[in-house]
Write a structure and sequence with these properties.
Number of strands: 12
Radius of gyration: 25 Å
Order of helices and strands: HHHHEHEHEHEEHEHEHEHEEHEE
Shape: elongated
Structural class: alpha/beta
Mean pLDDT: 87
Number of helices: 12
Largest sheet: 6 strands, parallel
Low-confidence stretches: none
Length: 335
């Protein structure tokens, strides 16, 4: 089959290539409705699809945005992408989503693939801890924004959207102590250099140590639910010591609940339970779980808006203040 070109469309519609180009890029100017309808009809009849490279040559834009998330199976990623898409799709951007699978190597390969597509900008949930690992994106003159996770020494002209993880964790730890809890067990999972869990661990640890409360961090990455249950059993002493389990991510709450069930514990009678979460399904467990709830949808919307600012400035080095989306305390009956 012959590849249909913009020239073929122009010839069939009886107009100039420039007129077709203006139509494709929605630069209608004084174009009559008759001309627009004629071009639209021919495009449909010929099944013409303008290539990204041709579009970039004409407009210096590909109208494509790359998004890389750490773990596409996490509900957080789905909601984050939905927020990004809500902002970009009405502006006729195509949004290309890649999964890093919590691997710095996969992330690097994914960024390179997106740069080969000549994307106009990039939103990334980073898997690496130092900005030097992302310098090549800046060298390619592609604006980008980070979301959720923290990069050490990230320049102020690179936008970022985060949750107030440390502050929210300190507030919850303080609440646990006021409720009489004498030990905290953090359930975490990390296989990459950077994670939103890091400031959460720091926040809980800071308050626990200040109040001389024992705190244990159990990294459950690559372990079974049985292993997790054994770790909890090990740290839940026979001596009466009011203990709280803290799940540091929404997906970990499933594992934590499974472990509690294996140990035949009930909350809040035998053990307290709280978790970071991304959506409100936990309200249906028991009488509801006490949560620290993020808003990934709003984070995605803000990340997309920040990126559009950088694209509009036509260069990646503009001052973009960080956007902090506060987590909400959702009350339940698990503490």
């Amino acid at each position: 089959m012959k590849n249909i070109t913009i020239s073929d469309v122009a010839k069939a519609a009886g107009v100039s290539v420039t007129t077709v180009s203006r139509f494709i890029n929605q630069n209608y100017g004084k174009m009559s409705d008759v001309t627009k309808e004629k071009i639209e009809t021919v495009i449909k009849q010929l099944n013409y699809r303008p290539s990204a490279s041709a579009r970039r040559m004409r407009t210096h834009e590909s109208k494509m945005i790359g998004v890389i998330v750490g773990d596409i199976s996490n509900v957080f990623s789905s909601l984050l992408f939905s927020g990004i898409y809500e902002i970009l799709q009405p502006l006729n951007y195509s949004v290309l989503l890649l999964n890093a699978n919590n691997s710095s190597d996969e992330e690097h390969k994914g960024i390179n693939r997106l740069l080969e597509q000549q994307i106009d900008g990039l939103i990334i949930q980073p898997s690496q801890n130092y900005f030097q690992n992302y310098q090549f994106v800046l060298d390619a003159n592609v604006p980008f924004v980070t979301v959720d996770r923290y990069i050490k020494d990230q320049p102020k002209f690179i936008g970022k959207v985060i949750t107030n993880n440390g502050q929210a964790s300190e507030a919850m730890a303080t609440e646990l102590i006021k409720l009489g809890y004498q030990k905290m067990i953090l359930i975490s999972s990390s296989t990459v250099e950077t994670s939103a869990q890091i400031p959460r661990i720091d926040g809980f640890t800071k308050v626990a140590q200040h109040n001389a409360i024992p705190i244990i961090n159990v990294n459950v990455a690559n372990h079974t639910n049985e292993w997790i249950a054994n770790q909890i059993r090990k740290h839940v002493t026979k001596k009466p010591q009011k203990t709280a389990l803290v799940s540091l991510m929404g997906p970990l709450l499933f594992k934590t609940l499974s472990a509690i069930n294996m140990l035949h514990l009930s909350f809040p009678d035998d053990i307290g339970l709280t978790s970071f979460d991304d959506w409100n399904w936990a309200q249906f467990v028991g009488n509801g779980i006490d949560l620290i709830q993020q808003d990934p949808l709003k984070m995605g919307q803000n990340a997309a808006s920040l990126l559009l600012e950088a694209i509009k400035a036509n260069q990646p080095r503009i001052q973009l203040p960080p956007i902090i989306i506060p987590a909400k305390r959702i009350s339940g009956h698990s503490l």
